[in-house]
Structures are given as structure tokens and as C-alpha cells.
Amino acid sequence: MKRLLILALLLGLMLPAMSQEETPRKKVAVVLSGGGAKGVAHIGVLKVLEKAGVPIDIITGTSMGSIIGGLYACGNDAARLDSIVRSQDWSLVLSDKDDLRYQSLKEREHHNTYAITTSLRLKKRRNRIGGGFIIGKNVGRLLRTFTYPYNDSIDFNTLPIPFACVATDIVDNSEQVFHSGVLSEAMRASMSIPGAFSPVRKGGRVLVDGGLRNNYPADIAKEMGADYIIGVSVASKLRGPEKLNSTTDILMQVVDFNTKNKLDENMAITDIPIIVDTEGYSTASFSSSAIDTLIQRGEDAAMEHWDEIVALKEKLFPMHAQAKPSRQETLVPLSDNPSCRIGQIEFENMTPGDVLFITRKFRLKEADSIDTYRANLITTSIRLDLFYESADFHIEPNAIDMPDGTKAARVVFIAGEKKPNKMSVGIRFDNEEMIAVQTNVAFPLRKRLPMQLDLTVRMGKRILAEADWELHPTNFLHPTVTLTFRRNDINLYEYGVRSYNVTYNRLTAAAAPLTFNVRNFHISMGAAVDYYYNYNLLLDQVVEHQMHFPDHEHFISYFGKVDYNSENDWYFPTQGSKFNARYGYYTDNFVKLNGDIGLHEVSAMWRTNFPIGRHLAIQPMFYGRLLHCKDTPVILCNVMGGEWFGHYFEQQMPFAGVGHAELQWDKFVAAQMQAQYSLTTNNFLKFRLAIAKDGDEYGKVMKGETMLGASMSYYYNSPSGPIGLSLGYSNVSEKLLFFFNLGYVF
Question: Is 369 exposed, middle or buried (0-12, 13-18, 19+ CB in 10 A)?
Fold first, then answer.
């Protein structure tokens, strides 16, 4: 009898616990509103929810809320989202510019030379479906990258966290809720701000930002089975009459009015409404400082509801209130650059010859592997080598059944229209050369062997006319033939005193059959013929400076050069390195120069960047040019001065504190230390210290006078090129340097 009583007592204690375990836990949904850049505050809220250990069973979102929510639902936790938004170049993501990381050095140089680029079409263009200032190819690529492996059509309920987002169909002004489909496409539709981004067209629907119909989709979360709703709103307050003073203010007020649709009803069903203070920030506030502040404001707003969040956690887990459910138990961290096996390769809108070119160049075949990095290199080649105006890719993992019973990916490369002729214009001003204008026209020649003809004209004190013919056969080989006319009118100085003014014409024919472009490398080997004529030399009265220039002279040279550049910015780098080296041998009869051994030229430059914190970068640089010849022609002598390499003369080397072109001896070596400090995103201070030695013989280089220079510069990185002011001093000229620059360098 006693044993029966003990057994009954134990059963009585166990039954409530067993009953509780069998009862399904109630579901928690997180609702994230739209708001453009202000939506990064959602990340701060998610950090607090993870800290509290509140489980998230459903996520719904609109616009930026759909992006943060979708990325979170497919496996990126709050820390990962924080890293993603901070690491993006948002000026690139929110544009249709080509990602310079995947372009050749020649393309990067072109991009950082010309302020304006437009298409020249000889025939009417086919109608292009658009509807927005930005097509959105970069933001689409970003979403596909960070939602991998969910790039094919799926049920969003099968994601690690069930998800839904909202778009607006402007055909009938209806609300479109995505519960399935291609995840990145649904997110892209939800954030398509009308007029700014082209809408997503799907099955007769024209889809734009979901905020126009439902900017805070708590009702969708309730329909998906949510028992408790935690909502986050980053919407701005409506403006009063005193703040409606511009076209932008009025348009944003109209948009904000539309986002209030259904807001009150959805707020009424929210258990924990979190309102983030976004005062002072707009939909376009993607600067580093704005992201920092907005994420922190999201955390602060969530912490104001900490007691409610903890109370909800205790309600969900009454027996184990202190236990935090592990997010890692349900989510598999996503790889930054996932690789998958190729089961099928498809090419859209490409000719059979172009397909053959790409498959051979990248050795593409089924059963091979591919990742987003390699896919981006392929789309870059489709654009640059085959002259398509745009190129994109889709990777659908596990879409193909392989003979061995495994799953593999379907990889699709999509090309746009063939490139039209392209015209680019650059304008610059500095107080040494005054104003200059340069125009480039590129003609893609659509032959069986891809090739391109570039014509460049420059007007100013230095006149240039150049024709460049480049072939694109295979494996990064780009043989090039170049014809160039130059007319130069430039002052030459010695120790800060103008000694010569030289004017001359120069014709150059160069062929480089071995020219290779491999992303960060440009390697070229070939020969050139230079013909100088119509010299006009004005001399000062110093006896040592009197010299006779020939009426004309010519050189036949052989050259090899290597350029490497992994820096993250052309003018204001903070990471990466830059290196170039050149060897040239100059003759006047293919072998000798003036009856003696030819002129040997060896030049090199190396610079690297050491970031210190977020604002400061230290950039040491070493460079020099060594000439070996019995009697060096003046036109080939070493020249230093200015801010950049090759500014007034091809062989010109920069030197802090010297703004003009200063003649140097045959052997010249120098070092520079630069500190670059970013005040804001586009405002920079630069401090330079330089030291150099030169001599007419190797043994005299280190024994000669030491040249020292220093400068301080302020630069603004404008859309039309750097705008800067430099002040400096050097013991070479013993004068204060004042240099002003506006525009890209060419």
C-alpha cells in the first residue's frame, strides 16, 4: 500500500511537467518596418532580442525591413548583419556602377580619369524596360550573395525562420505579400522606391516598395500564426509646415503619408512596439557614422523595453526562465563566398562564339566548382572582353540531379545588349598648367576576334591625339598597337629657377604583342618608335644652361613593364599596395645610340597602405629612375616634382614641396612617407615627407646633396574628381609651394 501511494505521488508530480512539454510553445514574430538607411537600426533591436534569449519564430518586413528580416531569416545573426552593413560601399551598392574590384587596371584608370561617360549610338536603341533612376543590379547582386543557398524558388516557410515581405503592385495599387519565390527577388521588389529604383516586373505585375501599402506588416505576422508580436518602426515623424520648404521635403512628406496606411491597426495588435528615434537621418543616410548611430539607437530603443522582453521570455519558458535557446541550434551560419558543384551551365543573350570564348577562357565545365568570386570575374569578362553593356549571374544550388545521385547547381549567365560606342570627357584645372580637356571615344569592333579601337584627344598646354587598337583573344592576352601625337609646352626648372621653356612635337608608334590584363596586374612587352621635331627652346642667361637642341631626333626602343594595383581607392586608398616597374632600351638604329651603347632605363615604384583605426592610413613609398648612357638626351632626362607620376612628362616623378618640373641627374632615388586622415567620407588631410638623392654616376648618388620636402594637403573627393589645395616647402626650390587642383588627373 505504501509503495502504491509513493508511485501515485510521483505520477502526480510528473504529469503537469509532461503536460507542459506536450503543449506547443506559443510563437513570437518580429515585424520590421521600412525606412531606407534608417532600417539598419533593426540590427540593434535584434542584438537585444538575442541577448534576452527570446526565440524568433516568424519574421515579416517591408522595404529595408524586408532586407534585414530576410537576411536574418536565412541564417545571418545580428552580429553578421552588423558586419555586412558596415563592410558595404553603399555608394556603389545603391547605383549601377561597375564594381571596380572586378575590373582590369585599364578600366579602373579610365573610370578615375573621366568625369562624364555617355553612349554614342548610330541606330535607335531597342526599348529597354526600366522605370527608375537606378536599375538595381548591384543591390540585386548583394542580396543574392548573402541569401545563398536560397537562390532558387522556395517556400519561405522552409527557411530557418519563416519569412514574408510586402511589395506594392502599382498596376492596381494592391498589396502583394511574398510567402514564396526567389528570396532575393522578393526583397528587391519590396525595397523598390518608386522613381529611384526600377520596379520588379513579374507576371503582369509591376512591383515597387511595399511601404506604399503596408509599411509595418504586423497583420501578415498574425496571419502566419504569431501569438506575440514584437514590432520595430523606424518611420520618420510627419513634417510640420515650417519644414516643407523644398521639393524633396514635399515628396518625402507624400511618401511618409502613404507609409501610415494600416499603421494604427497593426500597432494595435503589437505586444511590444519598439519605436526608434531616427531624427536627423534620412532614407539615404548610409555613411559610417550614420550606421554606427542608427544601430546604437536601435539597441537603446529595445533596451527601453527590456523588462517587457524578459517578461515575454519568462512567459514562454516558465520552468526555465533563465535558459537562453541557442540560435545556432536552428541556423547554419552562411559562408561569405560559398562554392558549389556545377551541374548545368546556361548562357542567355550571348552568341555561340561568345559562349565558346568564355567557356575556354575560364575552363568552365560541368562537375567543376564555382563561387560568387569566380562568377563575378566571368561577368566582368563578358562586359570587358566581349563588349556587352551588362552581365549578371544566378546560381541555383541543388537544382540538378547528377548521375551519381548527388545534387549540383544550375549556373546561368545573363548578358545585356552589346555595348554601344562610348564617349568620355574629363576636365581638370591646376595653377601650373591651367585648364585641360580630354575626350575619349571607344569603338567596340564586333568581329569574330573581339577588339576595340580607342581614340583620345587632349587640349591644353599639352596636346595629345592617340589611337589605340586592342585585341582580346584568349586567356587575358590583349595585344595592342598605339599611334600617338603629342605637343608639349612646359617649363623646366633647376633648383627652383626656371631654366628652360621647351616646346616640341612627338610622334610615337608602339606595338605591344605581349600585353596581359589579369585583374590587378597589367604586363606589357613590345617596341616603340619616337620621332621628335619642331623643337623650340627658350633659355635663361646662365652659361651652364646653354645647349643646342637638334631640329629633330628619333629613338627606337624596346620595353617591358609591370603594373600591380590592389589599392581600394585610386586617389585615397587605405588598404592594398601599388607597384610598377619598367625597363627600356633606347637606340637610334635598333642597336646603338649616337654610335655608342644605347640608353638603359630602369624605373620602379612601390607603395603600400597600413590602416590605423578607421580614419588614419600610413603610406610609405619608394621610387626611382636609373639611366645608364654615355650622353643622355635631354628629352629623356629624369624629371621630378608635382603630386603624381607622369603628370607633365611620362618620366616625371612626384616630390613633396615641389610643384613644377625639376630636372635631375641620371640616377635618382627617393622615398616618401604619407599620412592620410579622413575627416569624413569624402574629406581628407594628407601629410607628406619626402627625401631624395641623385647623381650622374652610381658612386655619387649617396654622396650628393640630400633633397628634402614636406607638404600638407586638403582634398575633397567630388564626383568630378579630387579638389585639393597643397602647401609645401622643399630645399630644392627653397620656396613655399602653393598648388591647387580640380578634377581627375590625366
Answer: exposed
Output the nine-digit C-alpha cell for 155. 517556400
Separation CA 74–CA 78 (nearest Å): 12
Question: Containing H/E element for 506?
Answer: strand 497-518
C-alpha cell read off for 420: 554601344
Top-confidence residue, 690 or 406: 690
Q: List b or e across 471-484, with b for residues whose CB sees 16 or more CB atoms inside 10 angstroms.
A: bbeeebebbbebeb
7-21, 506-520, 575-589: the lowest-pLDDT one: 7-21
Q: What is the mean pLDDT of residues 111-140?
A: 71
**Per-residue pLDDT at 329 exceeds 60:** no
Confidence (pLDDT) at 668: 96
Measured between alpha carbons, how far is 260 from 461 in angstroms, rounded to an integer?
60
Q: CA 469 to CA 451: how far, in whole Å?
A: 7
User: SS3 of 526, please?
Assistant: strand
Q: 39: which DSSP letter?
A: G
C-beta separation of 219 from 269 below 8 A: yes
- Report how far apart, in Å, the C-alpha atoms of 28 and of each of 40, 168, 224 are: 21, 26, 11
Cβ atoms of 241 and 12 within 8 Å: the answer is: no
Collect all residues with Cβ–Cβ distance below 8 Å to 548 and sequence separation of at least 6. Answer: none
Q: Is 172 helix (H, G, I), strand (E, B) or coil?
A: coil
Q: What is the C-alpha to C-alpha distance for residues 45 and 29, in angstroms, rounded to an integer?
A: 13
Q: What's residue 303's pLDDT? A: 96
Helix (H, G, I), strand (E, B), or coil: what is residue 666?
Answer: coil
Contact 48, 309 (CB under 8 A): yes
Q: What predicted TM-score, i.e. pTM, was given to this entire model?
A: 0.71
User: In terms of Cα–Cα distance, which of 363, 539, 361, 385 is closest to 449?
Assistant: 385
Q: Give the Cα separation of 40 and 509 in Å (integer).
A: 55
C-alpha cell at 459: 587640349
Give the pairing type, strands 339-348 and 407-415: parallel
Contact 394, 411 (CB under 8 A): yes
Element holding 424 (H helix, E strand):
strand 421-430
714: enclosing H helix or E strand: strand 707-718
Name the amino acid, one letter, at 171: V
CA distances from 167 to 34, 147, 184, 505 (A): 11, 19, 13, 63
